[in-house]
Amino acid sequence: MFTTCLDLEGVLVPEIWIAFSEKTGIPEFKKTTRDEPDYNKLMNYRIDLLKKHNLGLKEIQDVIAQIKPLDGAKDFLDELRTITQVIILSDTFTQFALPLMKQLGMPTIFCNELEVDANGFITGFKMRQENGKFHATKALQSIGYKVIASGDSFNDLAMIKQADHGFLFRSTEKIIADNPTVKAFTEYSELLDEIKKIIK
User: Fold this and answer.
1) Which CATH number fits domain 2-12+71-93+105-110+128-199: 3.40.50.150, 3.40.50.620, 3.40.20.10, 3.40.50.1000?
2) Strands, E, within 128-170: which ranges?
3) How many angstroms separate the CA atoms of 172 and 153, rounded?
4) Which of the residues 9, 91, 152, 156 is marked catalytic?
5) Is 115 among the catalytic positions?
6) What are the boundaries of each domain within the chain?
7) Whole-number pLDDT of residue 34
8) N or C: which end of the chain has fewer CB within 10 A?
9) Residue 116's pLDDT is what?
10) How does pLDDT run across 79-135, given as a tens digit for each residue?
11) Is 7 tagged catalytic?
């Protein structure tokens, strides 16, 4: 029995914080998990930036409302879900994810929670679990699933390496070069074909 675990941003939808950076004109928001391996450090950096520029949750949600899935992502996900269960394992937050999940056909997602004050400003965040993607993968294996996993960033590597079959997808040259034993794909059709070979 197989379950496929996918990262969200950079794999199925554009990076939310890059879109937010482009909308606000604040380049510092472009830093993502492709650039910073320490997710807690990255989020605290983002929260400090939001405070500095007096920006709150609503401003981010307004940008998310304009984000569409990457070209081909919905078709890829629809076909993938006909052959395997799919769980999105993401370090994003429930306050960000719902509009994106609706566009993707409401797949299951495991993610985190933002702490927001009465004025709508983000004051902190609650990780569902530290290194949650890795632990979710391991937990699925512990109940009898073989796990296929794919993601693009530093925070996906533990999940990818723990999985029975793990792949990079549209990752950076550095991450690909630093992980030569992990197959890397750039097209949904390639990744889907690889998964079909495993499952058949």
Assistant:
1) 3.40.50.1000
2) 146-151, 165-169
3) 8
4) 9
5) no
6) 2-12+71-93+105-110+128-199
7) 78
8) C
9) 96
10) 999 999 999 999 999 999 999 999 999 999 999 999 999 999 999 999 988 899 999
11) yes
